[in-house]
Amino acid sequence: MFFSSSEEVTPGLSAEPGPSSSTPAQWQLNMRGRADRISSSVGSSGGYSNSRAACGSNQMFFSSSEEVTPGLSAEPGPSSSTPAQWQLKISGRADRINSSVGSSAHSTPALPHPGRTPQRDLNMSTSSSTSASASASHASSVIVAVVEGRGLARGEIGMASINAKYPELVLSQFADTGTYAKVITKLHNLMPVEILMPDTASVKGQGTKLYSLITETFPSVTFTPVLRRYFNEKKGLEYTQQLCVPEFSTVLMEVQTKYYCLASASALLKYFEFVQNSIYAPKSLKVVFTGSEQTAMIDAISASNLELVVNHRDHRSEHTLFGVLNYTKTAGGERRLRSNILEPLLDEVTINSRLDTIEELLQNEELFFGLKNAIAQFLDIDELLSALIQIPKQETVPVAEAKITQIIKLKHILELVPSLKAMLQHSKTPLLEAYCTSLEDSRFNNILDQIKSLINDDTSYMKGSLTMRTQKCYAVRPNVSEFLDIARRAYTEVIDDISELVAQLGEKYSLPLRTSFSNTRGFFIQMRLEGVVLPAGKLPEEFIKVTRQKSNYSFTTVDLMKMNDHCEEALKDIFHMSYVVVSKLLNEVYEHIHCLYKLSDAVSMLDMLLSLAHACTVSDYVRPEFTDTLAIKQCRHPILERISGQQPISNNIYICEGTNFLILTGPNMSGKSTYLKQAALCQIMAQIGSFLPAEYASVRIADQIFTRIGVDDDFETNSSTFMVEMKEVSYIIHNASSKSLIIIDELGRGTSPEEGIGICHSICEFLINMKAFTLFATHFLELCQLQTLYPNVENQHMQVQHVRGGDGRAEKVVYTYQLSRGHSEDRHYGIRAAEMTNLPPEVIEEAKTVAAKISQKLWAKHYSDPATRKQRADYRLVTRLVQAARNSRLDPESLRQYLKGLKRQYLAEIQNATESVEIEE
Ligand SMILES: Nc1ncnc2c1ncn2[C@@H]1O[C@H](COP(=O)(O)OP(=O)(O)OP(=O)(O)O)[C@@H](O)[C@H]1O
Questions:
Q1: Is 672 close to ligand 1, i.e. is its CB under 6 Å away?
Q2: Element (H, E) at 353
Q3: Whose CA is nearest to atom 4 of ligand 1?
Q4: What angle do CA 220, 222, 224 make, to 5 degrees?
Q5: Is 215 exposed, middle or buried (0-12, 13-18, 19+ CB in 10 A)?
């Protein structure tokens, strides 16, 4: 049972004649006409929110004798046995969450699903939309519970999260490393408003490493210790079984032995019920389990470095990848895009099915614009679902009003389904066909028919607070409830009286007065000052609470305030009686309501795909193909392109298994970072199913994308810069695989050149052996020697031109932003920079000589160690052998000759390695 109320709709009234002897339809029109007249004559102040009546009252609205049926009623909830810690933190928490719920346009992503077919993509977004949904919500209305295994199970993490705004419980459990990188990344993506952990993990002074890391990394997020006993996996499973919508119940099989995520779910649901003061209806919640296998992992630092969803210089700026691709029309589409960018797909079939769809949308303009128009009219379905399935513990005026709004929104949304389906019927790609099929669900019509039996045909969701108030007042059909009809007549009369009063005042003082309405003031009077002569040079005494904004006066009178009170009283009655009807209606439609999950999935995915297609039309993008090579012809940086408004200089990117390590050199400001970032951004774009800013693109799917990008030099923080560098690199080394994409920009700057080169060199060698695709930008030209040592390394540089100044000494650098093979000839950028100053020439020359000697010495020293040199010779031999084995074109004789050559080469290298290397002093 979804809702219960002691009051029944009064039967038998439908046979009654309407008021004022007119027919019900006429009466309805008359009543609406009056209210609409006023609503159109007044300026709407602010968007939709609770009316004054709703806001002003905390008292119980109903004298209902029945209790609301709680989904978890059998369990002792926090309300009955509140832990002390909870009690302390509760006040204000619900408000904060609620206010963020109401205000944010962004949030939970409806997950992108990797799957093998488009149909799978559909199903997955139901079953795994998790990570997406989980990951998105930057609308801080997410609460997360985290628990870690103890003893031998240390490192096993269970997480459960729920967004007050979206009806989805996301569970995850995974083994993490000692750096807890996965937990931190997941939390970063979720952006929770509050994190719950067992009190035992956070005992002062003895907190676990995970606890310290979480509280240090998320200082602005509220941390709440919860008694360990609430992290109860048995209860977690029971709650999940009770709450899970049947359509998603396969998840129960998946999680039944995942004790840690179930334990988190148990604590989270209890806590959520407590702070929200409402519970979820049984069988109403989408429950999903997300591992980290289906999406590529992008750690929080990389997401920030690449400016995926937030620009770290200006948080409100749209100069992010999200900003470039976001042409979505719905909150759900926006969330889905955001979550996809943070967690791109791994499954080639799913990505290609999205690309097919985008291609169709680009080729079929009618379909593109038709779908866009259809999608743009949808409201936030997830938000509505979430509200529909939460059972308030108290029945107040705001609750009543909210329920009426919900039924109006539900009707509005369901009425849009046929036009969306009709548009999709023109499509040819499997993904769109699959969404079209998913909308052929008789439940949509059933619910709508039931709604229409009690709600007026022309009731619909509209913008503007007064307009929406009118919609709510007249939502229920006339003759359904006699008392409701009487209350509405009373309301209309007060509205007429208000109009009349304002007209009389205008006549009395010969002033151009207008009736206005706002949620905070109710009805009030407005007057423009221009061309107005005030009697006795000032406003009449009768006008009180005067405010002035530019050339507009706003005020009221004692009589108008009284009328407002009458209006509020009448409204309360209307909402009360409409609520009784609406609650009963919701009870009836409740069993079908879960088809909205399908609709939400379809709308958000279509919105995202339309948005990606739209981005292609704004700039010239190309469809990527998936191979084992990253090869992008004339690639452009997507964000730079958007910022500058003109095409940046394009460059080719080529990395393959044989040449998987690229060393990029070039002076400061020559475009190295831009080049590196555009490679990573294009990789992500390809893996969410977007076209790319290039002439041709082939992409190897990356399981993870890592970046280490240097911050600007800061002499004061050099030591900490070095530590940050080392931590970031160590994270990459511990987590990257041969299928990863790694971007490293400027490593080893926070220490002496000698150490810097040494560290860079050993890290490079480690990564070269790992076979990940790596782009490594550096100012240490010494590293370019790696190309001669390893066949899979290639040097590239950013070209610059040096233009001599008129006085023959000062030199100007012209940046071409063009990539070229080989390493940069521009050594000692610092000295070049110094040359451009007024330093005496002899000082510069001496600096050049000393620098050259030092670098030669460093290099020679580094390569003088016989053991290291032997190791490298071994590695080169193995690499060449593998290449030979793969080269199927060689006939046996050529292969033998080739192998002989390799042997000779290897022996020479070994001998060389043991000879001492002369170091020039
Ligand atoms: N391909 C390009 N087309 C047009 N402008 C570019 C391009 N690449 C870089 N730029 C411009 O040059 C500026 C400097 O580029 P970037 O930061 O990539 O240089 P860098 O070589 O990494 O510098 P540093 O070594 O100092 O970090 C960018 O802010 C951008 O405005």
A1: yes
A2: helix 348-363
A3: 648
A4: 150
A5: middle
| Distance from the alpha carbon of residue 669 to the mean position of ligand 1, in angstroms | 5
Q: How confident is the model at residue 318 (pLDDT cuts 50, 70, 90)?
A: confident
**Ligand 1 pocket, mutate which of 637, 669, 828 (most atoms under 8 A from CB):** 669
Nearest-CA residue for atom 5 of ligand 1: 648
Q: Is the CB of 778 under 6 A from ligand 1?
A: no
361-420 pLDDT per residue, tens: 999 999 999 999 999 999 999 888 888 887 777 778 888 889 999 999 999 999 999 999
Distance 116 CA to ligand 1 centre (A): 40
Every domain range in the chain assigned CATH 1.10.1420.10: 13-45+479-577
The closest residue, in CA terms, to atom 23 on ligand 1 is 669
Distance CA 659, CA 465 (A): 62
CA atoms of 706 and 190, how far apart (whole Å): 19
Centre of ligand 1 from the C-alpha of residue 817, in Å: 7
In angstroms, what is the span from residue 798 Cα to ligand 1's centroid?
Answer: 10
Task: Answer yes or no: is the C-beta of 669 below 6 A from any ligand 1 atom.
Answer: yes
212 Cβ partners below 8 Å, 6+ apart? none
Classify residue 111 by its DSSP letter: P
CA 607, CA 601: separation in Å to the nearest integer? Answer: 10
- Taking the domain 84-296, which CATH number applies? 3.30.420.110
**Residue pair 660/737 in contact by the 8 Å Cβ criterion:** no
CATH numeric code, 13-45+479-577:
1.10.1420.10
Q: What spatial distance separates the first Cα and last Cα of the chain, rounded to whole Å? A: 89
Instruction: List every span in the chain annotated with CATH 3.30.420.110.
Output: 84-296
Binding site membership of 829 for ligand 1 (Cβ less than 6 Å): no
Per-residue pLDDT tens for 261-273? Answer: 999 999 999 988 8
What residue owns the CA closest to ligand 1's atom 25? 668
Rounded CA separation 134/186 (Å): 8
Residues forming CATH 3.40.50.300 domain(s) in the chain: 638-678+712-826
Measured in Å, residue 613 CA sits from the centre of ligand 1 at 28
Q: Give CATH superfamily name and number for 638-678+712-826.
A: P-loop containing nucleotide triphosphate hydrolases (3.40.50.300)
Bridge-based pairing state of the strands 222-226 and 194-198: parallel
* HSE of 135, CA atoms in CB hemisphere, 13 A: 35
Which residue, among 376, 321, 361, has the nearest Cα to 688 in the 3D structure?
321
Q: Please tell me whether the interface predicted TM-score (ipTM) of this complex is above 0.90.
A: yes
